[in-house]
Structure prediction request, 247 residues.
Amino acid sequence: MDGPAHELRFTLPGLLAGLAPYQSEIMSNGMKTVAFILLAAMALVTSLGWMFSWKAERRRDEALIKHELEAKQAIAEANKATSIANEQAAAANLELARLQAKMLPRRLTKAQQETLVSDVSSLAPQSASIWYGAGDKESENFSWDIASALNAAGWKVFSPASTATLAQSGKPFGSIPRLQTGVVVSSNKHGPSMKAADALAAELLALGFDARKAEEIGSGHEPLVVVTVQARPDGAQGEMKLNAIGR
Prediction:
């Protein structure tokens, strides 16, 4: 028995010594494997981190682009609404101006008075009487404007006076004409007066006021022009009417 035991004791170290190179190689390969696995894990972690970061940046960029588009759309809608509101306001202001022009009282501006004086002064000294409807303040003021201009032109002007025209009652509807509007200029059967009446009616018409020569001529022969300022006509008068025609 001593023989085999002694032989085993001597052969085991040799066996271990023979396995040492293989063990070293195995350990080296294991370390390489572990290193490779670690590197692969690090690469995977890096890739995952980059991918998540890229996705986050992409989502952030998409959110920013969406926000910018929504902001631009909101600005465009606001600008459109503002444009529509401005157009509506301009249309409302224009309509208001038209309504005001239709309602403004007839008056001769300073420039119109100067024009009228210059155009009819050659007909002086022509006598003229001016009438307006009683209780019609607008017609009264316009009568005084005309009288002031004719007086400045050298005409013999009587101060404006009021007259009343009463509609008859008990008549069938439509049998009585409505009261006339505008300015009516008439004269007696006197040549210079008839010429002066024609000129005055034409001048008032040229200044933008509804004016006409009377169809009937007075029976007297004294030099006299009669100006009757009736109720204000519908629509713009004066410069407002001329401006509307020019447009």
